[in-house]
Design a protein that fits this description.
Length: 248
Amino acid sequence: MELILPVPETASGELDDATLIEHYAPPPEATRWLRVNFVSSADGAVEVDGNSHALSSEDDMRAFRFIRMRCDVLITGAGTVRTDGYQALRMSPERVEWRRAHGLPDHPVMAVVTRSADLDLSMPLFTQAPQRPIVITCERAPVERRLAAEEVADVLVAGDDGVDFATALDLLEERGLRQQLCEGGPHILGELTAADLVDELCLTLSPVLAGAGSGRITDGPSSPLRRMRLAQALHANGNLLLRYIRLR
Ligand SMILES: NC(=O)c1ccc[n+]([C@@H]2O[C@H](COP(=O)([O-])OP(=O)(O)OC[C@H]3O[C@@H](n4cnc5c(N)ncnc54)[C@H](OP(=O)(O)O)[C@@H]3O)[C@@H](O)[C@H]2O)c1
């Protein structure tokens, strides 16, 4: 056991942006990488009043933006898109500059996972996206909804009764989208864990107790334990920003 606390009263080494960005570099040997990013209360709640905003903080958002900046594709479940008010995925000028310097397109692609394909296609996420979004769905989704989605997005069908996530990630990789970031929600994380596809979990533990009533960061049918190693722990104003990487 190793002592990493107490947390210093005053910051002993505030990380500048460039250093913080480096702390979120994926392993250099990884040709494809699925990172999942969540924030939770200290007592494990995934939402307060229906969304995750109250759990987040400036420090969490700082890391959140840099994590997004690194990805080729941002994958989100339709449930989270509905509750958390997703906007078009657009990088700030500074982040566009960083991406260009690293050989990346200006903006990542947004991919929404849905079984029903019952999406509000008038959302800015679709209508104002700088990169044509992707809808990942399955054969069960009504054809007329899939056709409607094709007006504003590329539609990938990956599975019959539900999306098969291994197939979906392969299809994204075939499009050159190798740095894959998933921001949930819980049902998507449950599926990814069940399929043993999570390479990394970034988890911010927020210094609040949310009390009873909320679910965890994962939901759905149970799955076997997936062993992870703690690769990084950052502290910022009581928030713990943890990075777990899958043990292979
Ligand atoms: N704290 C955090 O970091 C964080 C992050 C994300 C979300 N959240 C919270 O989590 C809550 C939403 O949770 P959620 O679990 O409902 O959201 P979710 O996992 O984002 O979305 C669930 C939806 O994803 C689609 N889906 C799931 N599995 C599928 C499969 N195998 N095939 C095809 N589609 C599939 C379905 O969409 P259709 O209904 O369209 O078929 C399903 O209703 C919100 O309160 C949100 O604020 C918190």
